[in-house]
Every structure is written in C-alpha cells, then in structure tokens.
Design brief:
The protein has one domain. Helix content is 83%, strand content 0%. The longest helix is centred in the N-terminal third of the chain and has 30 residues.
Length: 260
Amino acid sequence: MLKILKYSFFDLMRSRWSYIYFFFYLILGYVLFFLNNDVSKAVITLLNIIIVLTPLIGTIFGVMYYYSSREFTELLLSQPLKRSTIFIGQYLGVALSLSLSLVIGLGIPFVAYGVMRSGAIWDFTSLLVTGSFLTFIFVALAYNIALSFNDKIKGFGFAILMWLFMAVVYDGIIMLLMMKYQDYPLDKFALGAMMFNPIDLSRVLILLKLDISALLGYTGAVFQQFFGTSMGMVISMAVLSLWVLIPVWRIRRVAGKKDF
C-alpha cells in the first residue's frame, strides 16, 4: 500500500494541475495580505473560499484520477495484490497530495506575514485542519462514485451533483424546513442537520473558533453552547473522522466485489 501511495502521490505532484492548485492558494494568500495586513480578516476571507473550493477540487481530482489511471489499476489487479491495498493506496496518494498543496500553498504567505507571532495562529491552524479533512472526505466520496460507475460521464455527473447538493442545495432545504417549522423548537434538529453535512459542520466549527457566532443569531448561541464545549469539539472531530472512515470502508468493500 505504501508503494502504491508513494507512486500516486508523486504522480499527482508532477501533474500541472497540482501546481495550479498550489499556486492558486499561494497567490491568493499574498493577494489577501496585499489588500489587508490583518491576519484574522484574511482567515475569515479564506473560510468562504476553502469551504466551497476544497470539496470541489477533491471531488474532481478523485474522479479524474480514478478514470485516468484505470488501465494502470487493471495492470495492478493482475498482480498478487489485495484490491483494498491498491485502491486505498491510490486514494491516500490523491488526498495527501491535495492536502499538502493546500497547507504549503497557504502556509508560505501566512508564515511570511508573521502568523506564527500573532494570536490568529490557532484560527489559521483550524482552517488548515478543516480544509484537509474536507479534502480527505470528498476524495473518498468521489472514489466511491467512480467505483460505482464505469461510464466516465455518469461518474463525473454524479460527483458534481453530490458536491452541488452538499455545498448549496442541502443548506437551502434546511433553511426552508426551519422557516416552515419556526414555531417549533428546532435546536436539536439544527445540530443534527450539521452533522449530516461535513461542509456545514466545518463552517460552523471555524466560525465559532473565530468568535463571530453572534452573526448566526439565536442558532449561533445554540451552536456556541454545544460546539464551544470540549465535548462538543470532540464529537465534531469524531463526526468528521467518520465522514472519512465510512467512505474508505465502502471503497474497500466495493473494490473487493467489483468486476473489473
């Protein structure tokens, strides 16, 4: 698995798309500091970009790498190797390379502008950790979709629809439900709804970390009461970990039964 992970990792790191992804965050970081030297404001601006862009890139790269390396994967399947070793090794290679591009791309400008000496270091670290979690989650989900469809068009279509649902449609549905049933106590419903969408959960965690939960109104107070505690943070990180582990478990299960 380590050899396959290493091959997938360096294969993607040599790709021009990985360099584009890296330089995008690198230039974005310097542009933000050129416009405003406040590290805290830069973290808040990056929040909206990372929450939407990172899942999209992870989804596209996951599907794209699976289909582009299918012939090589078939060659590996003809060798005395476990299927789970091949696919999980490829998945980890993709997810790690994208996470590294994110961390280094944003880390260079922030370190250059003194984030290590500012009080926003923990907010910035939380942003990078959350972005890495979202990368691992959506690459795993994309791999699951690609394994389920041999047709590239269907695979890409369902992957984009999955991202669109979690990034946009899901929030709209929750908002409509809360407006329709606003006369009822919806505290637990709102908390539960956050757990079923890693994008929403990541957004709330960072907003509360930045101490701007007042912008969320009454719902923000409820989130602050739950996520602001140590137990709430532990539960939230455990849920994000489950969003990684369950799709990885399904990759192993589907790969073991799929006829290639």
